[in-house]
Design goal:
Blueprint lengths: L1 E16 L6 E16 L2 E4 L5 E10 L4 E11 L3 E10 L6 E12 L1 H12 L10 E14 L3 E17 L4 E17 L8 E12 L2 E13 L2 E4 L3 E5 L2 E5 L2 E6 L3 E14 H5 L9 E13 L2 E12 L2 E6 L2 E2 L5
Antiparallel strand pairs: 1-2, 2-3, 2-4, 4-5, 5-6, 6-7, 7-8, 8-9, 9-10, 10-11, 11-12, 12-13, 13-16, 14-15, 15-17, 16-17, 17-18, 18-19, 19-20, 19-21
Length: 323
Amino acid sequence: SCMGEGISLNARVKGIVKPDLSDIQTRGSLDADAGEILFDRFYFNLAKNQGSTQWEGTYVPSRKAFDFPRLSASLKDIAALSVKGVVSLASGSPDVRLSLNIPRAPVNPLFHHFLLDPFKMERPILTTLAVEGDISGDLDFVSNGVGVSAKGTIQYQEGRLASEDHGVLFRDIDIRLPVWYQSGTTWPPAEALNGMLDIGAFHLPLLPEQALKLTLQAGPNSISLKGPFPVGLEGGVIDVGAVSCRISEAAGLLIETSLGFDDFDLGLMVSPHWAREIQGTMNGKLTSVTFQNGRLKTQGEILAHIFGGKIILSDLGASGILT
């Protein structure tokens, strides 16, 4: 649903039509500098965050195509984007080829307007988060009537995420996230998109402060983290294998990886949170760890020496996760 009140619009449009009607050139702008808009649960005060759109382009009747070298839109102090490309109806169905650019801007206003304010009642943890850094991006979008493709990169630079209430801190974040979505028709093969995840330091409950630097790679409807890579816990280091994330209409989200434990000290991890001191170690490898439709499945075996004996854990699983 969408509601508006007291909205003030200022539109300017200029057109040039050639005598032979070979093309029609147009340029213009649309500004909104007063009023309020509530779109679903997203609220915007246009007196504070003025909306602005500018465009210029050419319609060519013989090609049934609209070429526009510039189309930009912005909400002051929140976000902006620019688009260029062509929209053609020559084949009878829309053929759209666009290049989108999101210029570098602070991420905090986006967090407040699109996450914190709309969802803080449902997710109170959002009110404890401090978010800093800049976001930007470039995407190429194609829709040919039988399929859609979106490929590009989104960057998060000089980032910081923290929740003191929950003992969470990520700082000096630099992410170059490759994005590749496609559906419908068979698309020609293309090289994978590369990216990078670099976190100067982070800590979570049970995870001491450490750094993390990984290579990312995206393919059609998938993204992977090259492995193995170490993740430190209070009891030692876990070797995390390559992580693969894939999304499909039939199977939904599928995450696959592996986990290895080598002389993992259970005492260091458990004793600070237990009523009495515990001594023990853990070794083994979960050769396959998969998460799909809220269910966690593993293959492999872990041997724990604890309480003066041995415990063998194999083919662990859980359901109802994130529900």
